[in-house]
Write a structure and sequence with these properties.
Blueprint (H helix, E strand, L loop, with lengths): L7 H32 L10 E5 L2 E3 L12 E9 L3 E8 L3 E7 L1 H4 L4 E8 L5 E8 L5 E5 L2 E4 L5 E5 L6 E5 L11 H7 L1 H13 L3
Parallel strand pairs: 4-10
Antiparallel strand pairs: 1-3, 2-3, 3-4, 5-6, 6-7, 7-8, 8-9, 10-11
């Protein structure tokens, strides 16, 4: 088979077209990336990003009747780099399944942290936090909506006839996933909420 060389001018034109095609493709990639970042309300220099979810659970009796929410609890934590936790939904039931959804599936909602908590008595707590920046957004708990900007910690008691929710405005940047059990013992506001709900459920 005969091998034919392209004329020098034709080879040069082919190289130029190849370079132009590559630059066009690279430009499209950069534009698409910038559009995605802009759509999330973030800048390329932003170092705060979601890190997924955590679901601490504990149950301790210590020879006494347990106080739900203090001696036994399950929590959905939305983790956010640079901010510790974007949202904390603290319940008095002991079974939880939490999940994290990215904007590729949630679209305009941004990042979503969701939790499904279940108790042995059939009581349940379904929570969902949608946020684009880890600071603002909507938190839904059993169908009721709350403004994330007004507080990132939600205490939920299923003890008694009705589910009770208390929203707390706290600094969540230093919260640790393994520190909630100790916090349940030391924080007076958290202890007071769950203890009062427990006492009110007694005949």
């Amino acid at each position: 088979m005969e091998n034919r060389m392209l004329p020098e001018s034709q080879a040069l034109r082919d190289k130029i077209m190849t370079a132009k095609t590559f630059r066009s493709f690279a430009s499209c990639c950069l534009i698409a990336g910038a559009a995605i970042i802009a759509g999330l309300g973030c800048s390329p220099k932003n170092t705060e990003w979601p890190r997924g979810v955590a679901s601490p659970v504990w149950s301790s009796y210590e020879g006494k009747e347990p106080v739900p929410g203090i001696d036994q609890a399950s929590i959905t934590c939305g983790l956010w780099s640079g901010r510790g936790m974007a949202v904390v939904v603290w319940t008095d039931v002991t079974t939880v399944n939490s999940e994290f959804l990215a904007p590729v599936t949630t679209k305009a909602e941004g990042f979503v942290f969701a939790g499904h908590h279940r108790g042995p008595n059939g009581r349940k707590v379904d929570c969902r936090c949608a946020t684009r920046d880890g600071k603002t957004g909507t938190v839904a708990i059993n169908g009721a909506n709350y403004d994330l900007a007004r507080g990132a910690i939600f205490l939920v008691s299923t003890t008694g006839a009705q589910t009770r929710v208390c929203q707390l405005e706290r600094d969540t940047t230093k919260l640790e996933v393994d520190g909630f059990r100790e916090l349940a013992k030391s924080d007076q506001e958290i202890r007071g909420f769950f203890t009062d709900a427990f006492k009110a459920s007694k005949p």
